[in-house]
Amino acid sequence: MAALISSQPYTAEVRRLCADAVPSEVVVAPEPGAAVEHDFLLLRPHRTSHDALSPQVRRVGDHDLLVRFRNRDEQLVFEFWTNSFTGTPTSDDQSVDLLERYCAEQFPGTLRRFRTRIRQAVPSGADFSASLRQTYVQDGTRMADVTVTCTRGDAVLAQAWATYALPD
After folding, report:
1. Which residue in 6, 81, 139, 167 has the most C-beta neighbors within 10 A?
2. Own/partner pairs for 123-128, CB < 8 Å, 24+ apart?
3. How far apart are CA 70 and CA 44, in angstroms?
4. What would the pLDDT profile of 145-165 be if each residue is shown by its tens digit?
5. DSSP character for 95?
6. Beta-carbon count within 10 A of 69 CB
7. Does this model's pTM top 0.85?
8. Is-contact 29 98, C-beta < 8 A?
9. Which is it for strands 36-42 and 76-82: parallel, antiparallel or unpaired?
10. What does the pLDDT look like over 101-119, one tens digit per residue?
């Protein structure tokens, strides 16, 4: 499998891996009126082309999908949970990519976790704001939690919560 490309959002690569791993008949949709949510856990984001991943796909109830990727040593590399998955790119995926890119422009570091809530697709010209929630040390690594909100007028279109491992 291809290594993550630094110019490509991590979340897009995880979704591509999921599209390859999840059987085509598995489609999940949020409950009526609910926002589209994604949660990406990136435990070992710097892989090489030699890293083989084994996916484990699990449907959780009627509206949730959990996909875990483990390496040859059975270590968890990525985990992806969502309440909306079709296996093909959607406007919600494009919104996630925009949120991730905005985060990456604002905060240095390696993305470790990225949660999103998409109420409406993010159009061009939408406004983004970001805030640093906290910094801390976890297992000897400096970490930062950030929040990004996307609005148009007074309406909140989408939100993201990101955790970054900060550079030394």
Report:
1. 81
2. 123/152, 123/157, 125/152, 126/150, 126/151, 126/152, 126/157, 127/151, 127/152, 128/99, 128/102
3. 10
4. 999 999 999 999 999 999 999
5. H
6. 24
7. yes
8. no
9. antiparallel
10. 898 888 888 899 999 999 9
